[in-house]
Amino acid sequence: MIKRTVPLGKQIQFGFAFLLSLFCMVLPVSMLAQTNNNQLFKTSKWYIGADAGVSFGRGTFASFGADKTRVGSGFGLLGGYHINSFLSTEAELRYSRLGLGAYDCCKDLYLADGNRYYAPLAGAKNYRYGDLFSSVNLYELGLHLNIDFVKMFRPESRWSFLVSPAVYGVASKATVKTTKGENEVLKGNGQMHFGVGGDLGVGYQVSPRVNLRLYTGMTYLTGKGIDTMPQTEHKTNYTWDTGVKVTFALGRSCKNKKQKPVEVIAVAPQPTEAAQPEQPTVREDVPQPKTEVKVETAQPKHTVSQPTKKVVYETAIYFSRNQCEYIEESEYKTTVELLKALAEHPDTQITLVGWADKTGTEVRNETISARRAETVKRYLINRGITTERISTDGKGVDAEATDDAKARRTEIKLILTEK
Fold first, then answer.
1. Backbone angles phi, psi at 135, to 5 degrees
2. Is the pLDDT of residue 8 over 70?
């Protein structure tokens, strides 16, 4: 029987083809989910990070040896890009150090001629498996596709659960030592491997910039044994890593942005709080009293053609201090009720007025208040509400608020125009 081996170059091509195929399957779903993207990206879609954890492996030798368990360690640097709220790509450069020992130190193996089997290593004769262990250095370059199944259905959530298929290019180099005294017996040549595997991860958004993730994953490596031992029983290489990843979003947060809220007043709201009706037939009736945002039970007979504006629903979405770029998970219930009200009143106009607390300068608070209104507007647009129905304004500091937490908000009113 002829045993055929696939060249390393072909293995790499197969691996990247696998990752590309998976990406192509997920991409259509991600495009459909764009309407569910709730401004997850507070600063930038790009991020960097680092990870550290423990590492285990198995070739002919294994981390869980018969004499003891050898816990390895590893650390790495990474960078990634969010394609949308639940899909991202990530590249990582990682170093790991493994200790692999005899899987069964008390098992005598025999050759066909009946002689006891000793490790047939050049320059290392007369050593039994139980007398040796392998110290392995791994240098990995990985490419991950992260799929977040929490953000897929709840973009507002701080929590995430990720499934991350990946491909790797790995260089390994092992040194065989004695278990007693750790005397060097043999230094192996460097090996190149192609790896296929993936991670499972649970993450939490600690702040608008910082994400903390616990992960665990396994990788299958092609090529010769990573431990330099003869492949008599176990002809495959596996590594297993578990640890913590910390990522940091790039870009500037809203509290660092100095510009005035000119760019967010594109909707050009009217000086009054009432939303201007969008029907072209009533545009001649521009001047409206400021009190018209309140429910007017009976319109005087002298203005039959003047429309009546009635607030049919109002609520508010609150923000943390210095935060203006996304709707927080604590406001999820409010957004659900808002969407129900919008479905019940499809003919209403929507006014969004942002506010800030007394912290900071006047210009900064005007900027933050306007951006809070724009954030809610983007949320509604992503939920299918047309831009023409929405007007925004930023009022700056709410001097009448008794509590700073209540001041940091966007007021939302649904206004029905009755002729």
1. -100, 120
2. no
